[in-house]
Design goal:
It contains 22 helices and no strands.
Length: 496
């Protein structure tokens, strides 16, 4: 984090100057965060397509689906919610940062040792001895990720997403090249395990080289306790989220062949691509909205604009994904991967609501109501468990329909509850979201109907993309959408 960024964080400018600075930094942050997520997905997609089409099989991805949970869960535990707490705290000190750094490292090492010795029991539960070495290698991400959490937090706090974008893209590009080389050498599923470890190593090298922050030889337990009051509930919520996000895969692996788990993992992975890319807006807007937390009117105005931008970008992408999934999978991955199409479609429908709904957690973060986030997550995850219990033996499709339905209900209830915290009521939410939802629905239905008239899958896919994008953007332009104009202006200002 540079000197100017630190000055902006700690100084107290006038309201008009602060609003101008915040608007510029937020617009710049959203653009760079989108570039970061979009660039990451392009690299992941490119490498993933090559691996999936030419080198790996569904069984490989089935094994990977059972070990990736340790990577995700471990990183959440290492962070322990401290990143969010540090971003939220206005007067962050060097003692706070160094203390959190040492706690992160300690937790990371302890977790790795625990997972290392428990790996045989986990593998035995699924009857897959091959999981043991895979788990022990991929779990190295846990202690390694702890090394750069503070660097990432400081950059996010200052809305400096340019450095993060460059770092992530360099690391993923290099790791992707390594993965393709290893796949060519015939390493199979080990490619999927080595890739995240190499990414975090390269990312750490970049962040430590570019950032001037270094931990001091200071530690204050009181500082940790103060941050823990807020972060502990976020930690519990993160653990629940990650565990239950992977519960479907574990349930499928327990009751169905490993191949079915692999098909599910690929379907979810490709549905995740637009979801993760566009939902980057949530991470960017959180530190920006923190600046407006003390001005109720400004906070509501800024959040409504965030909802409109998210709806404008996210809903048509997810609906379009539902419409073009069959020719997309057939063209890109090949005919043997067509079983993932229904999984991809059902998950994408759920993500439409979960993506927009996730933004409302920012309001609860800002209001310091992390206990409400935890309660919502407990209720949501309890319903998911019940859904799995009643549908897992019926079939994978009923399981995913239940998952999607619960996600829709959860998102609506979360939006209603969080909206009341800033007097952002139901009909106002509908007014901000529905125009883009309706346009996206017409667009997706229209491009889906093309499949009844065009047989060639490549031509069909190209026609669907061109017509769908042209219709959606053209209609927004003709209707005079303010969000459309603002997005175009931001993009033009950064390019030209």
């Amino acid at each position: 984090m540079g000197k100017n960024d630190f000055f902006i964080l700690l100084s107290r400018p006038t309201k008009s100057v602060m609003q101008k600075t915040l608007k510029e930094k937020t617009a710049h942050g959203i653009l760079w965060s989108f570039v970061d997520r979009f660039g990451q997905q392009v690299l992941y997609i490119t490498v993933g397509i090559i691996l999936t089409r030419y080198f790996l099989n569904p069984e490989d991805y089935g094994l990977y689906a059972l070990v990736v949970v340790f990577n995700l869960l471990g990183c959440a535990l290492v962070d322990s919610g401290f990143s969010n707490a540090l971003i939220r705290k206005q007067d962050t000190t060097q003692t706070d940062l160094s203390s959190v750094f040492y706690v992160n490292i300690s937790i990371g090492l302890l977790l790795y040792l625990t997972i290392f010795f428990c790996a045989p029991q986990y593998a035995s539960f699924f009857g897959q001895p091959a999981l043991i070495p895979l788990i022990r290698i991929i779990s190295l991400v846990i202690p390694l990720s702890a090394l750069a959490i503070i660097h990432t937090t400081l950059l996010s706090k200052s809305i400096n997403f340019r450095i993060l974008a460059r770092t992530n893209l360099i690391a993923i590009f290099c790791a992707g090249t390594i993965s393709l080389f290893l796949a060519f050498k015939g390493l199979g599923v080990w490619v999927l395990v080595i890739q995240p470890v190499s990414i975090i190593v390269l990312r750490n090298i970049c962040l430590w080289s570019l950032s001037s922050w270094r931990p001091k030889t200071v530690f204050d337990m009181q500082s940790i306790k103060n941050l823990w009051k807020y972060s502990s509930k976020l930690l519990a919520s993160s653990i629940l989220t990650i565990f239950f996000d992977n519960l479907n895969a574990m349930a499928i692996a327990k009751f169905y062949p490993l191949q079915a788990t692999g098909f599910y993992e690929r379907g979810k992975k490709y549905a995740d691509i637009p979801y993760v890319t566009v939902s980057a807006i949530q991470g960017v807007t959180y530190p920006a909205l923190v600046f407006a937390a003390n001005d109720a009117e400004q906070l509501k105005r800024a959040f409504r604009k965030t909802i409109r931008v998210m709806s404008f970008l996210f809903i048509p992408i997810m609906m379009g994904f539902v419409a073009v999934s069959e020719p997309l999978v057939h063209t890109v991955l090949g005919e043997r991967w067509l079983p993932i199409v229904p999984y991809l479609r059902i998950i994408s429908v759920g993500y439409i609501f979960l993506g927009v709904g996730s933004l409302f957690t920012n309001i609860l973060f800002i209001k310091g109501n992390s206990s409400a986030i935890l309660k919502f997550n407990i209720i949501y995850r309890t319903l998911l468990v019940l859904g799995i219990i009643f549908t897992i033996r019926v079939g994978i499709i009923p399981l995913l329909i239940t998952w999607s339905s619960i996600g829709i209900i959860y998102s609506i209830l979360l939006a209603l509850y969080a909206g009341r915290k800033i007097d952002y009521h139901f009909f106002e939410q509908l007014n901000d979201i529905m125009p883009y939802f309706i346009l996206a629905l017409f667009m997706s239905v229209g491009v889906f109907l093309l499949s009844f008239f065009i047989e060639n899958r490549i031509i069909l896919l190209l026609a669907q993309l061109i017509i769908g994008i042209s219709f959606y953007l053209g209609t927004n332009y003709l209707l005079g959408s303010k969000v459309f104009k603002e997005v175009i202006e931001v993009v033009k200002s950064k390019i030209f």
